[in-house]
Design brief:
The protein is α/β, with parallel strands linked by helices. The chain is built from four helices and 34 strands. It folds into two domains: 92 residues, MurE/MurF, N-terminal domain (Udp-n-acetylmuramoylalanyl-d-glutamate--2,6- Diaminopimelate Ligase, Chain: A, domain 1, 3-Layer(aba) Sandwich); 181 residues, UDP N-Acetylglucosamine Acyltransferase, domain 1 (3 Solenoid), CATH 2.160.10. The strands form five sheets. Strands 8-11-14-19-22-25-28-31-33-34 form a ten-stranded mixed sheet, with helices on one face. Strands 7-10-13-18-21-24-27-30 form an eight-stranded parallel sheet, with no helix packed on it.
């Protein structure tokens, strides 16, 4: 998430009442999660295990709960609770705006686009030309929809990220200030759910097609011409490269990459990166050719056991 204008380190420290280590006039341009940070961004870290990853990331402002050596060219915001203060910044720079109509006055609707009855189009939404938004679709604030996009009934674009921190008193929610961005020529089936990014974008690439009842988690980046069949679930921060196919009821864990042209067969579960151009099956998923050999071997085990008994 980029701010509407440049801020200074001192201004940000004042908003969250934190200590700072660095030039008070150090420029701050936005805030983001570690996998998408750029120079000028704030990233937060609250566990020693990840201190070095944050300090060495592209982010130039680190919101951290320890006084550590400051890397050259960077600034620190020292807080007793970075998770809490990241939420404060999200609410400050992208506060919730109450809807006052089914289609917000600030929304932009392109030429020849049809919005069917009972849709909700939130604040600052942009929808391109020649789109068809079927009945009962909800498109939350700040979403961007390209040209020639079809969204079928009951789908929800822009719900909050499923991202919580466990506290002694329960789960503390990380506020979502990101967006959903759908590129040109995308089809989205009925009852799909696409969560917005925590601070960046959840992106559906041009020409990609989602079947009914597909879930896309926060900050997922889907490439071009990707096919995802019904009831597949994609966890947060997954990168799906171009021309990937994911068949029905498959599941993909967070923060992994599916290589270009890879195929994930139905009901498979992915826990690690997939290589480009290969087919995968099973849970945990493995290259389908090897998985089918393994299944064949398992089926032959009773015969082997009987033969061993006869030998004895």
């Amino acid at each position: 998430m980029k701010f509407n204008q440049q801020h200074t380190l001192k201004q940000i420290a004042t908003i969250i009442s934190s200590k700072m280590d660095g030039d008070p006039d150090f420029p701050v341009l936005g805030m983001n999660e570690i996998h998408v940070v750029e120079p000028g961004d704030i990233v937060f870290v609250d566990h020693p295990k990840y201190y070095q990853k944050a300090l060495n990331s592209a982010a130039t402002i680190i919101l951290i709960n320890a006084e550590v050596s400051r890397p050259e060219g960077k600034a620190l915001l020292i807080s007793e609770d970075p998770f809490r203060d990241f939420n404060i910044l999200t609410e400050y720079f992208r506060p919730f705006q109450k809807a006052t109509s089914s289609v917000a006055a600030s929304a932009t609707i392109g030429k020849e686009t049809v919005i069917q009855p009972n849709c909700f189009i939130g604040n600052n939404v942009i929808i391109g030309d020649n789109c068809l938004i079927h009945a009962n679709v909800s498109i939350y604030d700040n979403s961007i929809i390209g040209d020639n996009v079809t969204i079928h009934s009951g789908s929800v674009l822009g719900a909050d990220a499923f991202y919580y921190k466990k506290r002694p008193q329960g789960f503390d929610k990380l506020r979502s200030g990101g967006r959903v961005v759908v590129k040109d020529n995308v089809d989205i089936g009925a009852l799909c759910t696409i969560d917005k990014g925590v601070s960046g974008d959840t992106t559906i690439g041009a020409g990609s097609k989602l079947d009914n009842q597909v879930h896309i988690g926060h900050d997922v980046l889907i490439g071009e011409r990707v096919l995802i069949a019904s009831q597949a679930g994609i966890a947060g921060c997954v990168i799906i490269e171009n021309d990937v196919t994911i068949w029905g009821q498959a599941g993909v864990k967070s923060d992994i990459r599916l290589g270009a042209g890879s195929v994930l067969m139905a009901q498979s579960g992915v826990g690690n990166d997939l290589e480009a151009g290969k087919s995968y099956f099973g849970s945990p998923a493995m290259e389908s050719r090897l998985k089918f050999k393994e299944l064949l071997a398992v089926r032959q085990l009773p015969d082997y056991i009987d033969k061993l008994k006869n030998i004895q």
